[in-house]
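Second attempt. The first submission of Glycoside hydrolase family 1 had a stray character pasted in from the spreadsheet, which I only caught after the job came back as garbage. Lesson logged: always re-copy from the clean sequence file. Corrected sequence (425 aa) follows.
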Amino acid sequence: MTQQFPEGFLWGASTAAHQVEGNNTKSDCWLMENVEGSMFKEPSGSAVDHYRLYKEDIAQMAAMGLNGYRFSIEWARIEPEEGHFDAAEIEHYRNVLLACRQWKITPIVTMHHFSSPQWLIREGGWESAGTPARFARYCAHVMRELGDLIPYVCTINEANISLGIKKIMKRHQAQAAAPGAQVGMNTDKMAQMQKNYEALSKAFGSPAAGVQAFLAPRSDNGLEIIFKAHTEARAAIREISPQTQVGVTLSLYDYQSVAGGAEQAAQALQDEFLQFLPYMKDDDFFGLQNYTRAVYGADGILPVPESAEKTQMGNEYYPEGLEAVVRYAWKHLGIPIMITENGVATDDDTRRVAFIDRALQGVHACISDGIPVKGYMHWSLMDNFEWQLGFSRTFGLIEVDRTTQERTVKPSGHHLGSIATKNTI
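This time the job returned cleanly.
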C-alpha cells in the first residue's frame, strides 16, 4: 500500500562541517586530533574535501532526488580569532547556500556541530559564563550576512550529548557492556585519557582541570551554559532574521524498560530530554536525532542482547525507535519536529535500505496521527570522519574514495532519492 507524505515535506541528508570539509585548522578538534597521545584514531586531514567539492555534492543530492540539506557553518572558520570575522569564509558559506538555491534544495543550517574555535576553549570553553554571549554574537554576525538565504537554523547540535558521554565513560570504567554513544568515542584509549587531558591542557594553555570542549563530560553548570547559549542565540537570530525558523537538536534514544526498569527509563527520559523543555518551548521546531533504543532493567541500562543485530557503533539495529521518539517529543514539547539525524553505521548497504524503510514507516504513522513532522534528514550524506573513531565507520548514502575523493552513490542513496521524488513509501 502506497503511503503519501505531506506536500512540502523535506527529504534530505545531513553533514557536519568538521566531518566533511577538511583542513579545519582553527578548530579545537583539529588540535585535539594532532596532539601527542591523541584519543583520535587518526586526524581528519582533508576529510572528504567537501569544502572544495560542495557544488558537486549539492548537485548530486539534487540528482538523487533530495530537496533538503542540513549542514553546519564552522564557527572556527567564521571567527578564527575572537572578534575577528573572516569575510572570505562568510562568502564561502554564501556560495554553499546559493548552490542549495540553484538546485532547489532547502538548507537547514546548524550553527555549532561539536567543533569550536580554539580561542573559545582557551577562554574556558563550554563551562565559561561568557560563552553564551560569544556564541550569540557569532550567530548574529552570520545572520546579518546570510540570514536571507537561511530558512531554518539549528543553533546547537545535540545540546544534551555530554550526558551520554558521561554515562558511557562511567560504564566503561565499570567494565559494563551497554549501548554505545551516538557519537564516535574511542573507548579503546580510555586508559590514556588522563595523559591526553594533560597534553591538551598544555596545547590549549588551559588549567589542568581539563579542556572544556563541547564533547566532554559536563557539569550541571556547563549544561545550563549550553542551553543558555541556545536561547541567547535564538533571540539574536530572531532580531536580525525574523523569517528564519529556529530550533535546537537533541540526541535521544527510544527509552524502554523490562520488569523492574520503568523508573530507571523514566529517569533517563527526564535527564536527557524533559529537564530541557523550558529552554525549547519557545522554539519554532525541534531537531530530533535518533539511532537506536536503550532498554532499562532494575539495575540500569541493559547490554545489547548477544542475539541482536548490531551496528558498527555497537548499537542495536533498531529503526523502529524513531517513531517512538517522535511521539514522545510531540507529547511533551508540542512543537513541529524536524528529523535532523537518523541512520545506521554499516558496511552492508542493504541493511541501510531496510533501516530507511522501517524508520519511515514509523514517521508516516506519526504524520497520519496528526504530528507535524517537517522533514527527514538522513545521517549522513557521505561516509565521513566519525570523530575519535576516524574514517572507520560508514554512515553515508554516498561512498567516498578518499585517495581520489571520487563519490559513488550507494543503492541506499538512490532508494531514499526515489522515495523523495515520489513523496511516498
